[in-house]
Amino acid sequence: MVSENIKQRDDRVTETSHSALLKVAGLGFAYAQKPVFSEVNFELYPGDRLALIGANGAGKSTLLRVLVGLAKPNSGSITAFGQHCVGEESFQRVRQRMGLLFQDSDDQLFCPTVLEDVAFGPLNQGLTAEQAIAKAQTTLASLGMAQFAERITYRLSGGEKRMVALATVLAMSPEILLLDEPTNGLDAAAEERLLQHLQALPQAMIIVSHDRAVLERLANRAVILQSGQLDAAVMHRHPHQHAHEHLHVHPSSEVEAGKHGDKEHH
């Protein structure tokens, strides 16, 4: 059976009619003088849902942190919303419009109660306390978490913290979502609720996930970070010996070279 390329669920606005929301050119980062990645280049347009694939330790989470100014690159440039980002002041403006969901929810939650955590971002955006609380309540309700508003954050389960962490990001109405393992710690019902919610959102996204269901339902294109380099990738399905299909992502160069053909089985 011929491998089936996944149809691009492409709500993406054409590049000719809209400017890129995010442009990355020649980006490099090193930790303790050890290179993590170099010469990273890509653009993100309205409607893009970009899967960022790579092995553990490849630098995916680090790249997301660099994009919002939480880690400093040693080379290259970042242009967000038409503005070249240099220094903390410019990245503070970027973080008002580009929301990062951290891989570890405990890195995102620091207020005593859930409502205070979710209202924190809108308050920093200049909303009044009343407006911020209303925004937080609406966001929690949209995620099926309204009943958690007065809960003590540190007493929540891992899955509950994950949903609240996402609420803190969504409450700021970002134009770009950076999602680092968004389904970590969620049970099946919560994961389904989360995926349905994310599918309905209009924002451009960069998604890091080892969960194939997340990539299959959210992503419309993919890149792969390996050996410190970022390459275009192809998402496709093919049948397995146990009689159902899985989503696979391969570097474009390997697909073009015929290394992943129709008879591949796992």
From TrEMBL:
Q: Which residues form a coiled coil?
A: none
Per its record, what are the GO molecular function terms? ATP binding; ATP hydrolysis activity; ATPase-coupled transmembrane transporter activity
- List, alphabetically, the Gene3D superfamilies matched: P-loop containing nucleotide triphosphate hydrolases
UniProt GO cellular component terms: ATP-binding cassette (ABC) transporter complex
Give the Basic and acidic residues compositional bias ranges. Answer: 242-266
Database matches in InterPro entries = AAA+_ATPase, ABC_transporter-like_ATP-bd, ABC_transporter-like_CS, ABC_transpr_CbiO/EcfA_su, ECF_ABC_transporter_ATP-bd, P-loop_NTPase
Which keywords belong to this entry?
ATP-binding, Nucleotide-binding, Transport
Q: Which family does it belong to?
A: Belongs to the ABC transporter superfamily.
Give the protein name, as stated in the record.
Cobalt/nickel transport system ATP-binding protein
* Organism whose genome encodes this protein: Shewanella fodinae
